[in-house]
Amino acid sequence: MRQILFILLTVIQFAACNQVTKSAQSVEKTVNVPTFSSDSAYKYVQQQVDFGPRVPNTKEHIACSNYLAATLKRFGAEVIEQKATLLAFDGTSLNAVNIIGSFNPQAKKRVLLFAHWDTRPWADHDPNPSNRKKPVMGANDGASGVGVLLEIARQFQIQQPNIGVDIIFFDAEDYGATEDFRGENTEDSWCLGTQYWARNPHVAGYRADYGILLDMVGGKQATFYREQISEYYALNIVDKVWSQARSLGFGQYFIDQKGGTITDDHLYVNKIAGIPSIDIIQFDPNSNSGFAHYWHTVNDDMTNIDKNTLNAVGTTLMHVVYKEK
Ligand code: AHN
Ligand code: ZN
Q1: Which atom of ligand 1 is nearest to the CA of 295?
Q2: CATH number for position 175
Q3: Which residues, in sequence order, are CB contacts of 239 under 8 Å at separation 6+?
Q4: Which atom number of ligand 1 is nearest to the Cα of residue 263?
Q5: How many angstroms is it from 9 CA to the middle of ligand 1?
Q6: Most informative mutation of 54, 141, 264, 269 for ligand 1 (most atoms within 8 A of CB)
Q7: Residues 278 and 227: beta-carbon distance below 8 Å
Q8: Which residue's CA is the closest to the ligand 1 atom numbered 8?
């Protein structure tokens, strides 16, 4: 009888022990990733578009910058509006502002998420020549990336991730040389706000483990290929993001093939600031420009924005960020 009791007790103990170990393991493995709201992201895209084109040196541009800074503050970020006067390729002096929102600013481990918030002054890729001096509305080219990041910022306020995150909305990305411009050094005419920040970071000696740029992430049935500057500087981050997307079922958006080599804000974050960074950018290998047919035309408006695409990108990014520790 005693022997049986002893065996019984041992079995119970073992079972109890086993359970403790098991649940401790599952606590370690399972992170609760909050649910990204594409309705909310869409609303933030709409609110930017409602200002009109956000071209530097216009009142719409100032109004939108105030909205972006105020919204990041409302979501609990420490916000810096980094103002700069930047010289455009055509000699125009641009009153630019990079809007920087820091979450958990004391954390040493940090991720940088960024997008440009300005819109192009000229729809110089429009098939109709009479549209080519009109500004671009930039629902996709500008507002979409910012909209996704604002929704992620809102989630940070509800549930803080384990790491620090900086969200930067860069200005004057899209003031690059027009297609008919016959000057030199046109590559560096793009991404002026980012070039400025990379040389003058908002915090001396600023570091992040890696960076992710969102550019044109709201188009219907968008495809995101593995951009080549991203693979050159941050192949492991491309792998991390594309495999996370695939495991979430977003493989029809995140295509596991090499894409173009695209001069974009991440180039300068890599080259000047030395932070390994990737670009999630809509790419169409079958179009002439590499981009959607409405890119840099007067048709880059809300009619092309699809909540499913915002959701694929936003949900993937949420999983990447919340799984870091
Ligand atoms: C160039 O057109 C050189 N690069 C694409 C960067 C861009 C413009 N992204 C949005 N607008
Ligand atoms: Zn553009």
Answers
A1: 11
A2: 3.40.630.10
A3: none
A4: 4
A5: 69
A6: 264
A7: yes
A8: 174
**Residue 193 Cα to ligand 1 middle (Å):** 14
Could you tell me which residues come within 8 angstroms of residue 150 by beta carbon, excluding any fewer than 6 positions away? Answer: 41, 44, 68, 71, 72, 75
- What is the rounded distance in angstroms from the CA atom of residue 110 to the CA atom of residue 49? 30
Is residue 291 a part of any domain in this protein?
yes
Provide the domain count of the chain.
Answer: 1
Q: Is residue 22 part of a domain?
A: no
- Amino acid sitting at position 199: R
Whether residue 100 is contained in a domain is answered as: yes
pTM, entire model = 0.92
Residue 179: give the domain boundaries: 36-322
The number of the ligand nearest the C-alpha atom of 213 reads 1
Nearest CA to ligand 1 atom 11: 174
**Residue indicated by tokens 């700069």:** 84
C-alpha distances (whole Å) from 266 to each of 124, 127, 177, 248 are 23, 29, 18, 25
Q: Which residues line ligand 1 (CB under 6 A)?
A: 141, 174, 176, 190, 215, 262-264
- Asked if the structure places residue 103 within a domain, the reply is yes
Q: Which ligand is nearest to the CA of 120?
A: 2
**262 CA closest ligand 1 atom index:** 4
For residue 35, how far is its CA from the centre of ligand 1 (angstroms)?
Answer: 30
- For residue 179, the ligand closest to its alpha carbon is 1
Round to whole Å and give the CA distance between 267 and 278.
9
Q: What is the pLDDT along the chain (325 residues), one digit of tens a residue?
A: 445 544 444 444 444 434 444 444 445 567 899 999 999 999 999 999 999 999 999 999 999 999 999 999 999 999 999 999 999 999 999 999 999 999 999 999 999 999 999 999 999 999 999 999 999 999 999 999 999 999 999 999 999 999 999 999 999 999 999 989 998 878 899 999 999 999 999 999 999 999 999 999 999 999 999 999 999 999 999 999 999 999 999 999 999 999 999 999 999 999 999 999 999 999 999 999 999 999 999 999 999 999 999 999 999 999 999 999 9
Q: Using the atom order of ligand 1, give the atom closest to the CA of residue 216.
A: 10
